Amino acid sequence: MGAPSPPSLLRALEANLQKVMVGKPQVIRRALVPLLCGGHLLIEDVPGVGKTTLARALARSIRGDFGRIQFTPDLLPLDLTGSSVFDQREQKFTFHPGPVFTNILLADEINRATPRTQSALLESMEERQVTVDGVTRKLPSVFLVIATQNPVGQVGTFELPETQLDRFLLRLRVGYPSEADEIAIFDRQANGHPLETLEPVLDLEQVQELRALSREVHLDPALKQYAVSLVRASREHPEVSLGASPRGTLALLRSSQVWAFLEGRTYATPDDVKALAPSVLGHRVLVTPQASLRGRTGDSVVDELLRRVPVPIGAGQADASAPAGRAIR
């Protein structure tokens, strides 16, 4: 029997996650985008809709380590990164790693911590490293922060600073399950949570290989121009105080590659860009206070731009030289 192909691995991973996340196939597929991009995921929703379950299931499915931080107002930066403790027996300081030294890190209710503590994640998210007592330590090559956020405005929440929002590749909302799905969730958990018996379907090395293969997805020059036009239009919108940054452009194009890869194609199309633009750009677009009072949000601005910005002719064409999917160990 030959080695598994990328499509078969990806379908197996999605099917595995669907064992614990009922009725949310699009949420699951979008959650895989940051994993394959090497980015991070922000999930904004009310408690109890499966955000923690998704993070734990993803860690188990890729045979990765899982860490969790419950963000509270008294949480300190060293509680995240770790600290050096003096060992009296050895007469030296010994570093005790914090929960960021893992593969999948759940930053639960991130906007309940103070901005100073929220900022402590910036170095680890962007540089894949932490610096404590002047010593820089590398994080694992597969490192994904899944941060959950309660809707802003609830008691005890702080807005995430723009610099940190920009570090999240995607922002998702899980949403409530349908009536039938809610009954199915109960039935599946009647004799124990399915997460307890969930088995891995691939390993960290295969994740790295899938990341590399997804970068080979072809992006037509006209498609790149379309993505840039969307981002630049967000900066010029009269109701926007801060448009998406060049990091947003990179995130949109890279995410479109991965989305096409998840769809089993070797080239990206305008539909891939449109599918991910709200999740990639919505949290990066800040509207003016006046527009906010009228009910405008970054998401609504992005939806408007998707209707208004024309798709260039020739965008999303296949590349005859693009490599076909090959087997992975």
Q: If you had to describe this structure to a student in words, what would you say it looks like?
A:
The chain has helices spanning 6-18, 25-37, 51-61, 77-81, 115-119, 121-127, 162-165, 179-188, 204-214, 221-236, 246-262, 270-281, 289-293, 298-308, and strands at 41-44, 66-70, 82-87, 92-97, 104-108, 129-132, 135-138, 144-149, 170-172, 240-242, 286-287. The strands form four sheets. It has a five-stranded parallel sheet with strand order 2-5-8-1-9. Helix 2 (25-37) crosses helix 11 (246-262), helix 10 packs across helix 11 and helix 11 (246-262) crosses helix 12 (270-281). It has two domains: 1-213, Rossmann fold (3-Layer(aba) Sandwich), CATH 3.40.50; 215-314 and 323-329, Magnesium chelatase subunit I, C-Terminal domain (Helicase, Ruva Protein, domain 3), CATH 1.10.8. The mean pLDDT is 88. By secondary structure, it is of the alpha/beta class. The chain is built from 14 helices and eleven strands. The N and C termini lie close together (12 Å).
Reconstruct the topology from this structure.
Layout: H1 6-18, H2 25-37, E1 41-44, H3 51-61, E2 66-70, H4 77-81, E3 82-87, E4 92-97, E5 104-108, H5 115-119, H6 121-127, E6 129-132, E7 135-138, E8 144-149, H7 162-165, E9 170-172, H8 179-188, H9 204-214, H10 221-236, E10 240-242, H11 246-262, H12 270-281, E11 286-287, H13 289-293, H14 298-308
Parallel strand pairs: 1-8, 1-9, 2-5, 5-8
Antiparallel strand pairs: 3-4, 6-7, 10-11
